[in-house]
Amino acid sequence: MKSILGFIIIIILGCCSDNDKDDKNDNTSNEYRDITKNLSIQEFEAIKTFILENGDQQTYCNMYNNNPHYSFIGFEAYLNPEIGQGNINCDPEISDFNEIVIRDQNADPQYYHILIVRQGDLENKEIFFTVPAGMKEEKVYLLKYYEYDLDLMESKIYVYIELINNEINIY
């Protein structure tokens, strides 16, 4: 009887331990950081809509053409399509946009990639391949840019988020 009770306790502790790892994974990944507490799903969508309605189109990298773009004071913001190069010309009629790229040519690093994982994205075969393993739906993530320190990037991204929110009057 004691061995059965001990076995049950070990199983329960193991399950709790695995759940804790899942919860911590969003903030301890070396490739991305959950920033949903500082940039909500609604704020991400508001920024995306603002860029689509008020911006222009500008190519900034070799992967896409005509990215939706807006020139904020001191930096640029671009949108990347949620289906990757399946929408190489960034046509809003073909797909939505799940990534905001901030480029500040006077900063180091110059690029900050912010990815939203919406409800249903992990089951959508067109979108799933663009979402790194371990991410959860209904979250906003900062992606690591090359070998830059993710902690440093996270501390800097909040300045850009605040500037964007102030300029488009999200608050």
Secondary structure elements and their pairing?
Layout: H1 2-28, E1 32-34, H2 41-54, E2 56-58, E3 67-72, E4 75-81, E5 97-103, E6 111-117, H3 125-128, E7 139-143, H4 150-168
Secondary-structure class = alpha+beta
Residue fraction in strands? 15-25%
How helix-rich are the residues, as a percent range? 25-40%
The main β sheet shows up as:
7 strands, antiparallel
Observed structural traits:
alpha+beta; single chain; about 170 residues; about 35% helix
Description of the structure:
The chain has a seven-stranded antiparallel beta sheet with strand order 1-7-6-5-4-3-2. Helices cover 37% and strands 22% of the residues. β5 and β6 form a beta hairpin. The chain has two domains: 29 residues; 138 residues, no CATH class. The N and C termini lie far apart (60 Å). The protein is globular and about 35 Å long.
